[in-house]
Write a structure and sequence with these properties.
The complex is a heterotrimer.
Chain A (H helix, E strand, L loop, with lengths): L5 E4 L2 E4 L6 H7 L23 E4 L3 E4 L10 E3 L3 H16 L15 H8 L23 E3 L9 H9 L5 E4 L6 E4 L15 H5 L5 E3 L3 H8 L5 E6 L20 H11 L3 E4 H22 L5 E2 L4 H10 L13 H17 L6 E7 L3 H6 L5 E2 L2 E2 L3 E4 H10 L21 H4 L6 H15 L17 E8 L2 E9 L1 H12 L7 E5 L19 H15 L9 H11 L5 H7 L14 E2 L9 E6 L2 H5 L2 H14 L6 E6 L11 E3 L2 E3 L4 H16 L1
Parallel strand pairs in A: 1-5, 10-11, 10-13, 12-19, 13-16, 18-19, 21-22
Antiparallel strand pairs in A: 1-2, 3-4, 3-5, 6-9, 7-8, 14-15, 17-18, 20-22, 21-23, 23-24
Chain B lengths: L10 H15 L7 H12 L4 H11 L3 H10 L11 E6 L2 H5 L2 H12 L13 E6 L11 E3 L2 E3 L4 H17 L1
Parallel strand pairs in B: 1-2
Antiparallel strand pairs in B: 1-3, 3-4
Chain C lengths: L7 H13 L1 E8 L2 H5 L2 H14 L4 E2 L10 E8 L11 E4 L3 E3 L7 H10 L9 E2 L6 E2 L6 H4 L17 H6 L4 H8 L3 H11 L11 H8 L8 E6 L8 H8 L1 H15 L3 E6 L4 H16 L15 E6 L9 H8 L23 E5 H13 L1 H4 L10 E8 L5 E6 L4 H8 L15 E6 L5 E4 L9 H6 L8 E6 L4 H15 L5 H18 L5 H17 L3 H5 L2 H9 L1 H8 L16 E2 L9 H5 L5 E2 L7 E2 L9 H5 L5 E2 L3
Parallel strand pairs in C: 1-3, 2-3, 8-9, 8-11, 9-10, 12-16
Antiparallel strand pairs in C: 1-4, 4-5, 6-7, 12-13, 14-15, 14-16, 17-20, 18-19
Helix pairs in contact in C: 3-4, 7-11, 7-14, 8-9, 8-11, 10-11, 10-12, 11-14, 18-19, 18-22, 19-20, 22-23
Classes of the chains: A alpha/beta, B alpha+beta, C alpha/beta.
Chain lengths: 670, 170, 634
């Protein structure tokens, strides 16, 4: 007899405990139904049709989209269901570029895994694939549309979690593709390179762009001294590639492996994270005491920085000017190591191993180059690092742990928890507490800032000072907080933003995992590391003090500013030309761009445009001046924005524009 | 797209203002994307990329979303179409009465195929469309909005030649 | 804002009086079919000619002029008999003139309008019996029909709200709003047994009754006018011919579920329907029938018209809602059903145009009266678009339970060949329900058609497209045609539909082009069943129907393609095997001269032969042969 709140799954009664759908409930019966398009973080899509079950009275339905109802009798493994699942996999394979042996995703491909699991041994259907070009336009990600199975996970992740919408479905039916707008490349649209698409992709259709070959090359170049920094999150995930559980800390083995691979020095990004804590907290407390612009947003996450530059340019002054730990490490390494090691600066090759794809983009930003040489020469993801170990034939699990090199390999627990959401805030609080109270912290934990929720608002009292923090992960959440700040609806002092849900431990460079508890285990691994280290607050790092006195002219010093801080600029969301309002004909000397984006439109840019066109016509300047409507200078609070030649003007009136135009025309004439 | 070369005219501005008016008419509401695209297409006769990007920005949508919608529906044109858009109905009734042969005849006459649908001189676009709902007159084709019933391949070619002659005379 | 509401009673009265003051009404059919055949030119000619002949003509009835006129010249929506258009109807005599051209107008004016006689040469002559019929209702095409829903389409002016009101229009809506509770409206429609005309045949009253108790202030009614079925055009005719009737149905549905806002979603391919519905909404708003405080009931009602953008899948309700919301028209899984979470997450009822146009009848005349027609399980009438190889193509309306034989042979006038000549024994099959439906064959000719009987044999009534196919039709090719249609229109979301329909199409191509083996058919059937069972929405679930049903009834035809590499109907080009029948060939040499590859040889006056190795199966020979001596190629 069925109990009131039971569902019968293959003959066993399973209690309904608030599951949103049958698929989740069936997991409690220890049955993992095959699926491509179901992700607990994303909306239900119901397209892959693999999680089908047979329910009495309802027939064949997808379990992901069916809410459990008491008394349901569900069968998950009937002959027709097996046949249908096999058929759908066969259909997908027929439309899939099956170069499995040479695919980077080969060992973690869900399509391959399910085909094997479901016993698909042949594809009876025709394959008529027209090869589509790869998108290798950017340093972070490679898109291979030939391997896409159109499950839509990437589209929903980009939209629902990151609020970016860089890619979407285009066309329809058999011609459907997933692509950036107008079939452009990722580098031409608002992609922030967080790589969430790659981490949810079940196949090799979106993958991190590898730099392994560059690193091998540097390692075999005798003139080069190759040093490496390892980000905190790498140590709790790399083991997964060698059969270890998620969350198992392998720092010592990693050092041994890196040494075997030929790296000259192995350092820890956590050292730079400690440095970041000191700089960022100092900046923050300075703003707080001087009553300057708050809240301060963190700037460690390169995907968030790019996002802010594109979508929240008005908040850029709120972004901490601190470089990310990766870049602090890079500039510091390039500034100090050549002397220490007795080599030329250009012979120092800095590699970082990151859980992140956006770090690859960050390292290539022009701000982070000196004399044509980047501060960080190559960025490997955790995955790539694992692959290098495998390529070298190193038996990772058998290695005897070794120690990181000093000084840049020494860190406190604060620098380690940077890799998890809430970690930056907690590290900052550990330093700020001492600064504000003058008392040494007895218990290092600020456990209240931890947790998996996407937005956590916390009020924390440090002595007499009450701080209001917002800790967010997922850029869509960040956008919401940013909107509140902009609208004056929020009075936060400090906002921590990480793009990836869960923080860096779930970055797109980490080993691919479709398991439910991976995130939790990795998080735990970092918090455990913090516990086992002797020191827990960045200010206690003895090598930092040394570094400040020898290299950086003290906290907030001139040299520190030069090496550890940066600036931001607003970026356009769409690469486009805008369009000519006057008909383009003939070469023109001068281009006028009038922003007609929403903000400027509301501030009267359209009328301005009209006046300008009339003026140009009245003066007979049609051949000299090209008046163009463009979409956004991303300074919407200062609209209407007009760009004449190279001069950008804000809060424009027609008179201002006319004056500038006349001035420039006179210059052209002269 | 202005006929008078080398003489600046304000058709760009007029169209742009029209787009703004259309956006305002629908309160710049993202849920009105389909009718907005329809009206804008009416103005431009297709949906230029920049205009789609402008619409996206104005509605607070990602350009990929707008492109996704524009490329989903058959009636949105992503490329400019000819002055005369010929739709050949390929509904069941027209199909069993030989609509295929009409398409073949027009393709041959105009040098087009299923991939290349618009003539080089931008005069004609030929497309097969699903049922036009005039099954009683099968086979049917429309030239712009004008419906022609019980069409034969010869009659279709004759219609097209007639238009071309008229155009050349002008 | 206080609206000045129209006094419906007085308006109707005035219109009827004005109508009585006119001696004769001339109605020119301005449905899409007749317009394409030039009916607007006929209308213009009539106007000029009547004026030239000094007749007193009105084109719009005044409210209060009180003066007598000779002729009231008006346009109507589709009268259904598209085959015979342009149509001109003369009232009160009910004379029908067919194939009217502007040149005929002088005669009509002279003989009919001045001398009160029918123009004999313009009346309908039955092609089989050669009998002439003067009056509309005597013509076999109309005689067997029961035009309950379509009836007014042919003679009401669709652009004049007053005429609709004068004929009792909007009285049912008024009753629903002022004299009935929502529950009563649901009950009445439930009692009528009305089933959705869009495809599934779900009881309309039950759909409403499920939505009514859903919590929330905001609910929506959507009128689904995205009729995409290739070969069906009843919704188009209703929206063009009697838009107010549709609007009234929408209002009643809104009353039944407690909605105050409605959307009419019309296919973009129907510009005239869009225009007519828009005008109807504007006129109803101006008259105060839509707007605030409808019929002084204290309830409000607004109605938006939205044009589709060309996606057949938007006929699926969740895809349609996505389209209204500005998204790609991709269906989503149900549950939640629209009744719980529809447009913008609000409870929503979606009904098809024909369903909604039927509703006012039920409220006006009562469910009992409605049930007098049709069968117990499928009461009422159903419109069918009869097309294909049939003498009288057009739009018809018959009670459920009518047989296919009556429809094709009595109303439709029989099966025709490709030249339009009646083929007494030419019937092969009928495709019912478009690409989601299946085929009915000679064995089903005497089966009473209703939702359940058709479903039982693996087809569906669907929206009511009936495509008649003669014996020269290749059923594999027809299955391929429908497969290509659904494959083209698949939204691309779910795997079985996106990939499965594509592969089914390719398998059919293998069969048609001689590449198939015995395994092809097996794989096709296995795939068809996986697509049918596992697709996300109705489009995918029904996409294999044409294949499955042709396989069921014409399996031998498939096998002939596969095993003998032969197309029995001679339609599949790749399998064509042209042959010259020696007993018919006169040896005239026409084929020999026209053959582009010199594959034909033979002495003059002696039977010719085709060399199979050289022949490219172009069919030129068969076209030029005057003795029907060449077979096996088309």
């Amino acid at each position: 007899m069925n109990n009131g709140d039971m569902v019968n799954v293959d003959g066993r009664d399973i209690r309904i405990e608030g599951e949103r759908n049958l698929l989740e409930l069936i997991r409690k019966a220890h049955i993992e139904l095959p699926t491509f398009c179901y992700h607990s973080d994303l909306s239900v899509y119901g397209a892959c049709r693999l999680c089908i079950v047979d329910i009495d009275g309802m027939g064949v339905v997808t379990s992901c989209s069916t809410p459990p109802k008491a008394g349901m009798v569900v069968r998950t493994n009937t002959a027709p269901l097996r046949q249908m699942r096999r058929m759908y996999l066969e259909l997908l394979l027929a439309n899939h570029h099956q170069g499995c042996a040479t695919c980077v995703k080969s060992d973690r491909c869900k399509l391959q895994e399910l085909a094997v699991r479901m016993g698909v041994t042949e594809v009876r259907f025709q394959t008529k694939l027209e090869a589509k070009p790869l998108d290798t336009s950017n340093p972070s990600l490679v898109r291979d549309p030939n391997k896409c199975i159109l499950c839509g996970d990437c589209v929903r992740a980009c939209e629902e979690i990151q609020g970016v919408g860089a890619i979407d479905f285009a066309y329809r039916g058999a011609a459907t593709t997933v692509a950036p707008a107008f079939g452009k490349t990722l580098s031409e649209v608002a992609c922030v390179y967080c790589g969430l698409c790659a981490s949810v992709c079940p196949t090799g259709a979106i993958t991190p762009r590898p730099q392994i070959d560059r690193v091998w090359q540097a390692l075999s170049d005798e003139r080069k001294t190759v040093v490496v920094q390892i980000a905190p999150a790498v140590r709790v995930a790399l083991g997964e590639m060698f059969g270890l559980e998620a969350g198992v800390v392998t720092t010592g083995k990693m050092v041994a492996a890196l040494k075997m691979l030929g790296f000259d020095k192995v350092f820890d990004t956590s050292f730079a994270a400690d440095l970041t804590v000191l700089e960022e907290t100092t900046e923050f407390l300075g703003r707080k005491t001087r009553g300057e612009r708050l809240p301060q947003f963190t700037s460690c996450c390169p995907a968030w920085v790019k996002y802010a530059e594109q979508f929240c340019p008005e908040l850029l002054p709120n972004l901490s000017s601190c470089r990310s730990p990766q870049q602090m490490f890079g500039s510091l390494a390039k500034a100090t190591l050549p002397d220490t090691l007795g080599i030329e600066r250009e012979d120092l090759f800095v590699v970082s191993i990151m859980p992140c794809t956006a770090k690859k983009f960050e390292a290539q930003r022009p701000e982070f180059q000196a004399g044509g040489h980047p501060d960080v020469d190559a960025v490997l993801t955790t995955q790539e690092f694992g692959r290098m170990i495998k390529q070298a034939g190193i038996q990772f699990n058998q290695l005897t742990p070794e120690s990181l090199d000093l000084p840049l390999g020494f860190k406190t627990g604060a620098g380690v928890i940077f890799g998890v959401t809430g970690g930056v805030s907690e590290a900052v609080l550990r330093f700020a507490y001492e600064k504000l109270t003058g008392v040494k912290l007895d218990s290092a934990d600020f456990a209240e800032v931890r947790g998996p929720q996407g937005v956590r608002i916390r009020q924390i009292k440090l002595g007499d000072v009450e701080l209001k923090l917002a800790i967010v992960h997922g850029l869509k959440n960040a956008r919401a907080v940013a909107e509140d700040v902009r609208a004056g609806k929020a009075d936060y002092d400090f906002v921590e933003v990480m793009a990836c849900p869960g923080g860096c431990i779930a970055g797109a460079g980490q080993p691919v995992s479709f398991e439910q508890d991976t995130r939790h285990r990795r998080t735990q691994g970092l918090y455990d590391t913090d516990k086992t280290l002797q020191l827990h607050a960045s200010q206690e790092n003895p090598y930092l003090a040394q570094c400040y006195s020898s290299t950086l002219d003290g906290i907030g010093g001139h040299r520190a500013h030069e090496l550890l801080h940066t600036g931001y600029r607003s970026r356009k969301r769409v690469m486009d030309e805008g369009f000519s309002v006057l008909d383009p004909s003939g070469a023109r000397a001068l281009e006028i761009n009038v922003c007609v984006g929403t903000g400027c439109y509301l501030r009267g840019s359209q009328r301005l445009l009209q006046q300008l066109v009339n003026y140009v016509k009245d003066q007979g300047l049609e051949r000299t001046v090209d008046v163009r409507a463009t979409f956004c200078f991303e300074a919407c609070d200062k609209g209407p924005n007009v760009k004449i030649g190279e001069v950008v003007m804000h809060r424009c009136s027609f008179e201002m524009v006319r004056a500038e135009l006349d001035k420039q025309l006179r210059q052209v004439a002269a | 797209m202005c006929e008078k070369q080398n003489v600046a005219c304000d058709c760009g501005l007029r169209k742009f203002e029209k787009v703004c008016r259309i956006l305002d008419k629908y309160d710049r509401s993202p849920s009105k994307l389909v009718p907005i695209l329809q009206e804008v297409q009416h103005e431009y006769r297709y949906l230029p990329e920049q205009v789609q990007a402008f619409i996206a920005t104005s509605l607070g949508l990602s350009p990929a979303r707008v492109f996704g919608v524009a490329s989903f529906y058959a009636n949105f044109a992503l490329e400019p179409k000819g002055k005369y858009v010929i739709h050949i109905c390929d509904g069941t009734a027209c199909h069993v009465k030989g609509s295929e042969r009409i398409k073949e005849a027009l393709h041959k006459q105009l040098g087009l195929d299923d991939k290349k649908t618009t003539t080089g001189d931008m005069l004609f676009t030929v497309e097969a469309v699903s049922c036009l709902g005039a099954c009683g007159l099968a086979p049917v084709m429309t030239i712009n909005d004008e419906v022609h019933g019980q069409v034969t391949p010869a009659k279709a070619v004759e219609l097209v030649n007639g238009i071309r002659e008229r155009e050349q005379a002008e | 804002m206080i609206q000045q509401k129209m006094d419906m009673e007085a308006t109707g009265q005035a219109y009827r009086q004005a109508r009585q003051a006119v001696r004769r009404r001339v109605i020119v059919c301005a449905g899409t079919g007749c317009v394409a055949n030039g009916s607007l030119k006929v209308y213009e000619a009539l106007r000029q000619e009547t004026e030239a002949r000094g007749l007193d003509v009105v084109v719009k009835l005044g409210d209060d002029c009180g003066c007598k006129s000779d002729v009231f010249l008006s346009k109507s929506g589709c009268q259904g008999f598209c085959q015979a258009g342009p149509l001109v109807t003369i009232e009160p005599e009910d004379w029908l003139y067919v194939h009217v051209k502007p040149e005929d107008v002088a005669d009509i004016v002279e003989q009919t309008l001045i001398h009160d006689r029918p123009v004999k040469r313009l009346v309908y002559v039955d092609p089989a019996s050669h009998e002439a019929f003067e009056q509309t209702h005597e013509i076999p095409f109309y005689k067997r029909q029961q035009r309950v829903v379509l009836g007014e389409c042919g003679n009401i002016d669709p652009e004049d709200i007053r005429e609709y009101i004068a004929r009792g229009g909007y009285a049912a809506a008024k009753r629903a709003f002022t004299e009935m509770q929502p529950e009563q409206v649901c009950e009445e429609v439930l009692a009528s047994g009305l089933r959705g005309r869009g495809g599934g045949g779900f009881p309309t009253g039950r759909k409403w009754a499920l939505t009514l108790p859903e919590p929330g202030e905001k609910k929506f009614v959507i009128c689904n006018g995205d009729e995409g079925d290739p070969g069906a055009f009843m919704d188009r005719s209703l929206m063009e011919g009697n838009p107010h009737r549709v609007l009234e149905g929408i209002m009643i549905a809104a009353r039944a579920i407690g909605a105050d806002e409605a959307y009419v979603y019309v296919r973009a391919e129907y510009p005239l329907a869009v225009q007519r519905i828009r005008k109807a909404v504007a006129d109803a708003e101006e008259a105060g029938i839509l707007g605030e405080d409808v019929f002084d009931s204290g309830r409000n009602m607004t109605c938006h018209v939205m044009e589709g953008a060309g996606a057949f899948v938007c006929g699926e309700e969740t895809a349609l809602m996505a389209s209204i919301e500005g998204l790609r028209g991709m269906p989503r899984p149900k549950p939640p059903f629209p009744a719980q979470s529809g447009l913008w997450g609000k409870p929503t009822v979606i009904n098809n145009v024909e369903t909604l146009a039927t509703v006012p009848l039920i409220i006006a005349e009562g469910s009992g009266h409605y049930r007098r027609l049709g069968t117990a399980g499928s009461p009422g009438t159903k419109t069918f678009a009869v097309t294909g190889h049939v003498a009288n193509t057009g739009l018809i309306e018959v009670p459920f339970g009518t047989t296919l034989r009556e429809i094709i042979f009595e109303i439709g006038g029989g099966v025709i060949d490709h030249l339009g000549q009646v083929m007494p024994d030419g019937f092969k099959a009928v495709q019912i329900g478009g690409p989601s439906g299946g085929c009915l064959t000679a064995e089903h000719l005497d089966m009473p058609l209703d939702f359940d009987s058709v479903k039982k044999i693996g087809a569906m009534v669907g929206s009511g497209g009936l495509v008649v196919m003669n014996r020269d039709t290749c059923m594999v090719k027809i299955a391929h045609f429908f497969m290509r249609f659904t494959q083209n229109e698949s939204c691309g979301k779910c795997v079985p539909c996106r990939e499965g329909t594509k592969q089914m199409l390719w398998l059919l191509e293998d069969i048609m082009e001689g590449r198939a083996t015995a395994e092809t058919l097996e794989l096709l059937e296995e795939l068809a069943s996986a697509v049918q069972l596992g697709s996300l929405c109705g489009l995918g679930k029904t996409a294999p129907n044409p294949v499955l049903s042709t396989l069921r009834y014409f399996r031998s035809e498939y096998e002939a393609h596969i095993v003998q590499k032969r197309c029995p109907a001679g339609q599949c080009k790749a399998l064509a095997m042209p042959e010259i029948l020696a007993d018919r060939c006169k040896g005239c040499g026409a084929c020999l001269r026209k053959c582009p590859v010199n594959a034909i040889a033979g002495e003059k006056k002696m039977p010719h032969r085709i060399d199979a190795g050289t022949c490219i199966k172009c069919g030129t020979c068969a076209q030029v042969c005057r003795f029907d001596a060449i077979v096996g190629v088309n």
